[in-house]
Structures
1.
Amino acid sequence: MHISPLPDIAAEVQDFYDRYPYPRPIDNLDRYRSQWLERQRRRADYHLFWPTRSYREDQSVLVAGCGTSQAAKHGMRWPAAQVTGIDLSATSVRRTEELKGKYKLNNLEIYQLAVERVSSLGMSFDQIVCTGVLHHLADPDAGLSALRSVLKPGGAMHLMVYAPYGRTGIYMLQEFCRRIGIHANDGEIRDLMGALSALPPGHPLESLLSQAPDFQHEAAVADALLHPQDRAYSVPQLFDFIEKGGLTFGRWVRQAPYSLDCGLVAKIPQAARMARLSLPEQYAAIELFRGTMARHSLVVYRNDSASGPQQVSFADDAWLDYVPIRMADTICVQERVPPGTTAVLINQTHTCRDVFMPIGATEKQLFDAIDGIRNIADIVERTLSSSHRTTSLTLARTFFKRLWWHDQVVFDASQQSTGV
Ligand SMILES: C[S@@+](CC[C@H](N)C(=O)[O-])C[C@H]1O[C@@H](n2cnc3c(N)ncnc32)[C@H](O)[C@@H]1O
């Protein structure tokens, strides 16, 4: 499929990614494949998007603005799914085709197509993944509406867009490049990398540079500092953006950094006052307090889905029927833990160092009983003494809610039955 003429800015973005494809092209997905062979990882991923739907693997997936490898990865991750990748850049499409051929990904189709024109495929999708793309569009609202128009009712969308405060140093360096007329070509980028290595200590870009090994590579430097089109969304701007796009917020892909109950935010004197705010207002305040968020990664649904958004709730007794599934990349540390603590639970994908979960001996028993099969009622029944039922249920409710907010578990809430 070939694209018809695009607005100037899209043509400029296309040319940019043809020359500097991002992420860096890779030709080996062996390690990725072996990770996703684990059924538990796939179930945890599925129920993060659809807690109340029964598990299945044959969904239709659109990877919009798929770059060099993301669509191939989804094709590999979900062999029974039909995966479609689209990207404006010929280089990205070619790289994805190469991976498709190498790994015989017969469930993957790839098109050189603009997000804004996705409806021309005449298809609709259970899941849409669009990460690192909408903030590069001349009209992100139009892009999001186009995606919404091909999302099935009950479907889920994974979006990632830039966040402003953690990118302050990037925007300063972008402005630096604009003022002195630095352009995206190999020589200028090499010189720019030289300048970055001489940045003074304390520069707002310093921490991003040290956290992102990616900055050693030319395409990453070009993507961050010389992109022709780049905007960022604060939490309130993001909520406006998704509402205008006919969508509704589901959850953050990693929610602990936004939670009032996790990490250092839980301990500040204003925490109780913040708890009286609505959740979006809490998220907005926490983004300002943390100050380092460079992107927002979230799950959204159509705002007209008959079943409503897929919600996890501890308000009534439904939580007792939830089956907790451990999230991938979580670890339980038992050595050198703080006094009075049995273990510390960590999600290794968190970049905020303060977000970890200390647990006591009884909580550790509940944690150890999580096998991805038993529901919470069953876990409580087997683990806690039945003589103090109300106390046990209160403890369990608090504990599983904390586990969920700390990104230790997702819930399969598709089998609501009796409770205890
Ligand atoms: C930063 S990369 C992100 C790639 C991938 N989504 C990921 O997260 O690894 C942005 C990609 O979006 C593509 N892109 C930018 N504007 C687009 C548009 N209007 N339609 C389709 N793709 C677009 C670029 O060609 C590039 O491959």
2.
Amino acid sequence: MDKIGIFFGTDTGRTRLVAKQIAKKLGEVAAAPVNIGRTTLADFLAHDRLIVGSPTLGEGELPGESTGLSQPSWEELLPQLADADLSGKTVAIFGLGDQQKYPDEFVDAIGILHDAFVARGANVVGRWPVAGYEFKASRAVDGDHFLGLAIDQHHQAMLSESRIDAWLEQIKPELLR
Ligand SMILES: Cc1cc2nc3c(=O)[nH]c(=O)nc-3n(C[C@H](O)[C@H](O)[C@H](O)COP(=O)(O)O)c2cc1C
């Protein structure tokens, strides 16, 4: 079985740290986390099981040139995926955001990535309850769940590790089967 690919975008490094934490917890079944702006489409597509992470930047946007990043990120990768067939791939998404400063766009990037992967046929797993967060609106919500794991390192950093642990236990059976 190939290793679980872990790919992240980041501005100030928090998402990278969470990606590294996830990789460490998964152990040898996971590949080392890779910045999505420093890889090739072929390397990304080489994995059938993926964990992808992103902060939300701008006003509910993916990281990339339009949010002021000096290197490519998810904003630049997604158009490259336009013709890709992701059926057969299982993808779990985590996202970092700030629920107090951006209560109307909290972790929107999870929703943007979710829609892009689903549209290309991927099986997206890892929904996470909205209970315990305080925000007004998010593209990442469907009913009473986020479409991936929401992490707020600004206001709920103390909860992050237990959230990551519980989420990994939830997605492991789906990623490892
Ligand atoms: C300019 C700017 C815009 C942001 N916009 C949002 C947003 O729309 N929604 C949100 O949940 N968080 C938003 N954030 C918060 C970031 O997602 C948060 O700081 C995150 O931890 C950054 O992760 P990184 O260190 O991997 O870049 C914004 C932060 C900055 C600096």
3.
Amino acid sequence: MIPWIIRHPRYIGTFGKMVRSFRECETARRVFAGNGTVVPPVMILSITSSCNLRCPGCLAVAAGNIRQSHATHAIREPDLTHDQWRSIILQGNRLGVFCYTVAGGEPFMYPRFINLIEEFDNRLFVVFTNGTTIKETAYTRLKRMANAVIVFSVEGSERATDDRRGRQVFERAMKAMNRMNDQGILTGVSVNINRANVHEWMASYFLNDIIHMGVRLVFLIELIPTQQPLSGEEIFLNESILTPEERAAFRAKVLEYKKTKPVFLLHSPGDEERLGGCVSAGRGFAHVTPSGDVTPCPVSNVATHNLTNATLEDAFKSAFSVKYERMNIFWKPRECPVPSLLTRKK
Ligand code: SF4
């Protein structure tokens, strides 16, 4: 990141402030841990239940966090207000949370989240977007900040992206990403890795292209279904989930990229190998749904506290006494690297 920061001077002052804030957060978390409250360094805020796209296999839909006509869960609770999100971030800051990942739904359909990035300029905000609803004013405001990374969700090539997300989604997302890169806004890409696009990511041309465009952060998230396939779905899932051989080959390729490419690369679940398993449920991060439920991760719908009537400290003190086995909503593909979490409950 150092060469990138030097090329974008507005980040230089912020960098020092961020390092100081990061250390203060570490100290705060240590103090709370001493009192039995495990505070994660990262919180994922699913800030809105609205989204303009209808991507098959959307995990936010599967977890019941999104308002869509095809969603299987009816959402009755309203989204939290701006003031409620603000209060959650204030509480998180006091407890030692350093990074807020803003997800959804589609965050840019809840434009006031940018106020939060502006206000809390000593915290890092990583915003996941499909890139198709960003308004003119958002570019202008983000251009003035140095504490946000905007991460665009694509599948890889134009064809792979549009096949899943809809016509011209790739073109619109790339246009938005290029514009942000031109304005010196830090950008990233998030990809759902499956059998349809893994070959594009095994070959490095698309990765090289986006690095050349200015991207400095890449999330490679392997498709993990949330339930054992029913007989009718078996073919779809078998065709979509990486085989053990593909998973091993892809992991080896990711480790090679990590050594050779000038980009910060996160691979899930592969990176969990060195972290001793899943880092959700407060170990590394926790999640808040659009209506304020605190859950272990964005694809889990197990919650013990809702932040409209409980504090974040209360939630961190006891929410994660929910045992991992209650979260085992995933079907475990063979050779999956996080067996402790991904074993399906019998
Ligand atoms: S853009 Fe994201 S949140 Fe919206 S439907 Fe697609 S995967 Fe789900």
